[in-house]
Write a structure and sequence with these properties.
Number of helices: 9
Number of domains: 3
Strand content: 15-25%
Distance between the termini: 46 Å
Order of helices and strands: HEEEHEEEHHHEEEEHHHH
């Protein structure tokens, strides 16, 4: 628990509470803001909407003994459709070691070339010799399949060296290994919000339009963000109309 942070709080209020409790802003990605704890041993990831990362957190919490997964210390849901996740602070990993881990986990898309036969054999051998690698290999694919079933505009696995960090003792840790294809989802909100709404209701899309990439426009939105908000307004009105109709039919 963090003083002033409460489940269900708006994500911007949670960030204000973090700062009041002595947490320092640390980094910003496309989706999330990251804060550093007062003693520097933990980070808090704050996001208004990120279903792929939420799936990763579920997996980490379900498998706390897997060394290749992050240690989650605390989490809570935030409005409109996000969460705050407190976890161990990690350090940048050696790029070569991180690349070997990704290869051993069967992921080579991050390479700017085709993997050599020697690399593929070495990575397969490393996985065969390490039960922990085999478990994580299987867990990643099971979770990715679950994401494909549950989430629209699912991108799949995003296992690459940039998403590998390390603990103080050198053990490598996967972060953010799945993704929803935001660059395809956001234009879809403009072109066919009803189709998007079959996967993500307006409440979740409100969160999408407040992710970190829109941070500088939240209080002074540009024309594209205004269009996106207008489309979500249309979806919200449609949801409200459908709810009223269902209520009337149920009452009848």
């Amino acid at each position: 628990m963090i003083d002033g942070v409460e489940p269900g709080q708006h994500h911007r209020a949670a960030r204000t509470a973090l700062e009041a409790a002595g947490w320092r802003w640390h980094a910003r990605g496309d989706w999330a803001q990251v804060y550093l704890s007062p003693d520097g041993t933990q980070v808090a990831r704050v996001v208004p909407f990120d279903p792929a990362y939420a799936l990763h957190v579920e997996t980490c919490l379900a498998h706390p003994d897997e060394d290749f997964f992050q240690r989650i210390d605390w989490r809570c849901d935030l409005a409109p459709a996000g969460q705050l996740v407190v976890m161990e602070r990690l350090a940048p990993a050696d790029e070569a070691r991180a690349g070997d881990l990704c290869g051993a986990l069967g992921e080579t898309k991050w390479l700017d070339r085709a993997a050599t036969d020697a690399e593929l054999l070495a990575w397969a051998d490393a996985r065969q010799r390490d039960p922990a690698l085999r478990r994580v290999f299987d867990l990643l694919r099971a979770t990715a399949a679950e994401g494909a079933r549950r989430l629209g505009w699912w991108g799949g696995l995003d296992v690459r060296p940039d998403n590998v960090l390390q603990r103080a003792d050198g053990r490598l840790v996967l972060i953010d290994p799945y993704y929803v294809a935001g660059p395809r989802l956001i234009p879809a909100v403009l072109s066919d919000v009803a189709a998007v709404g079959r996967h993500y209701p307006s409440k979740q899309l409100r969160g999408l339009l407040e992710i970190a990439v829109f941070e500088d426009e939240l209080d002074d939105p540009g024309p594209v963000l205004l269009q996106l908000r207008g489309q979500v307004d249309v979806l919200e009105a449609s949801e409200a109309m459908r709810a009223r109709k269902e209520k009337q039919e149920h009452g009848a």
